[in-house]
Design goal:
191 residues; 4% helix; mainly beta; eleven-stranded antiparallel β-sheet; 2 domains; three-stranded antiparallel β-sheet
Length: 191
């Protein structure tokens, strides 16, 4: 069921990734990052003003990150860095508060629709505290910052639909909000 809400958007330019994430009023709950770099793509955790990277990923690789989606219950921060053009951060939230140093854009009146995207693989026996290994023969191992799960894990998301000219409805924005455990094939109905 869709509900109408206001999506608040704010931006900052020429801001370092770590400074942008640290400026956000995250509130309670876990904060997860999806980091893109030439060396790979990883899920990470933001805690204690730093990124907690998956097992086997060297922290020196953070310098090569060119895009990040950092998200939690309070909102999503998108950060982009383009060579020769600098960096840009965008904060999306249903709450009016914005990160320090960000400028507000016009809020959007939108319909809120919740979704989830199931990550490839099923949890493997992981002995790394705070991390789950999703494995599949095709893709290998994806480390997910999740305390414990049996089966599968999904990215939770919200799509924001808006009516445009001539009555057309489209997805105006989407934001990631968290991770959720899904039942495995061997444990129907259990999480």
């Amino acid at each position: 069921m869709a509900t109408e809400t206001t999506l608040h958007v704010s931006q900052a330019v020429d801001i370092d990734l770590t400074a942008a994430v640290a400026a956000v009023p995250w509130g309670e709950g876990p904060v997860t990052a999806l980091l893109y770099a030439p060396a790979g793509c990883w899920l990470a955790r933001w805690a204690d003003d730093r990124f907690d990277l998956p097992p086997g990923v060297d922290s020196g690789l953070l310098a090569g990150v060119w895009e990040a989606r950092v998200f939690g219950a309070a909102g999503e921060l998108r950060w982009y860095s383009t060579p020769g053009e600098g960096s840009r951060a965008v904060w999306l939230s249903e709450h009016e508060g914005m990160p320090a140093g960000f400028a507000a854009d016009s809020p959007l009146t939108v319909e809120r629709h919740e979704h989830q995207y199931v990550l490839w693989g099923e949890t493997d026996a992981s002995d790394v505290p705070g991390w789950q290994a999703l494995t599949t023969a095709q893709l290998g191992t994806l480390w997910v910052p999740f305390e414990s799960a049996r089966g599968r894990i999904a990215l939770q998301a919200v799509e924001y639909w808006q009516e445009f000219a001539h009555g057309n409805v489209a997805v105006a924005e989407q934001r990631l909000v968290g991770l959720a455990a899904l039942p495995g094939r061997d444990a129907p109905g259990e999480v």
